[in-house]
Task: structure prediction
Amino acid sequence: MKKRMSHNMGAITRKEIEEFAELVLEDFLGWRFSWSAASPSICDKEQEIIWIAKRYIGRYPWEAKENVLHETAHINTWPSDSFHGEEFYREYIRLLQIHMAGGGGKSGEGC
Ligand SMILES: [Zn+2]
Result:
């Protein structure tokens, strides 16, 4: 009898999310990352903090990273595009290409 393949895609740790967020925010002077017990995550312009919901700890890595990039994309597109319009998605895709798709990374590698 054949064994079924696992569908487990891995689980991200608290530390991995923190390191990812710190790396992403290196390009956003003054901004920092903090955990939020509440959900959803938010981009706090007044305090210059992206608050990431703790519920992402232990979830799929792409979920947590996508959430960090989503909130980061609000930094330079709020309030001009606070409702996820074209300007927001242009910035979001730029961040995805750098941090998740391997293109345009800081190392200069990728396609
Ligand atoms: Zn949003």
In short: Residues 86-99 form the longest helix (14 residues). Residues 70, 74, 84 surround zinc ion (CB under 6 Å). The CA atoms of residues 43 and 50 lie 5 Å apart. Residues 107-111 have pLDDT under 50 and may be disordered.
